[in-house]
Amino acid sequence: MKKLLMSLGLLALVSCTSTSPTGRTQVLLVNKDQMTQMGIKSFDAMKQETKISTDKKLNNYVQCVSNQIIKTIPKDWQSGWEIVVFDSDMVNAFALPGKKIGVYTGILNVAQSADQLAAIIGHEVGHVIANHSNERASQNKIAGVATQAAQIATQGTEYEAYATKGLGLAAQYGFLLPFSRAHESEADVIGLKYLIKAGFKPEESQQLWRNMAKVGGKAPSEFTSTHPSADTRIDNLGAHIQKFKEQGIKALQPRPSCSR
Ligand SMILES: [Zn+2]
């Protein structure tokens, strides 16, 4: 009986496999619409609870860079993105299912050029398009952890602070937990490709991580988390800049002029 259940379980897993943009096999067990709804609900809650930047120039700048990136992603992903600039000194940005991206003003001091901001936006878009949140929720499911109970995993860790910073619902769904090394590296690579196609300077993505390393782990965020290490990311990006060059991946449009 146990064997039968196990093979039934395996069958269910096999039927839910999918392929990420870099060709990696993934298991996605959570209904896509459900993920989208959770993302939208979390984002709405954050917009209620966290101060949104009213700096028009800054908002236009972030929107300008984001638009350039979104123009280069697969056609069926291009519509319906929402990008919000939150007024907070946290060095962070995040992406939620449902095409929601949050950028904190704090990270704009670390991303010192439009090219570096494009690396951040590309990375976040990469997480969404590669269904990383669904994959992580699915892994929790396999491990027998209910997604709704993901906040338990944050208790007693530096991430617990999120719950008190008006990020309750997103934290509760586990959206704000750091992604795995594999997901981080994959989001870097996916983002890099978009940023090259969008006409931004790919080498600036490496400079971004040098800047990030100087900030260190002062604030818990997916950008200041220690995995992968800045050196590993910079090397990985360098290798992929070379690889994409050899593959003939190039800018599809002139370098955008987004100024802050
Ligand atoms: Zn990430």
Automatic annotation (TrEMBL):
Signal peptide: 1-20
Entry's Gene Ontology cellular component terms: membrane
GO MF: metal ion binding; metalloendopeptidase activity
Family: Belongs to the peptidase M48 family.
Domain Peptidase M48: 58-237
Keyword Transcription: no
UniProt keyword annotations, A-Z: Hydrolase, Metal-binding, Metalloprotease, Protease, Signal, Zinc
Cofactor(s) the protein needs: Zn(2+)
Domain of life from the UniProt record: Bacteria
Textual note on the cofactor: Binds 1 zinc ion per subunit.
GO BP annotation list: proteolysis involved in protein catabolic process
Transmembrane segments: none
InterPro entries recorded: Mito/Outer_Membr_Metalloprot (IPR051156), Peptidase_M48 (IPR001915)
CDD domains assigned: M48C_Oma1_like
UniProt name for this protein: Peptidase
Keyword Acetylation: no
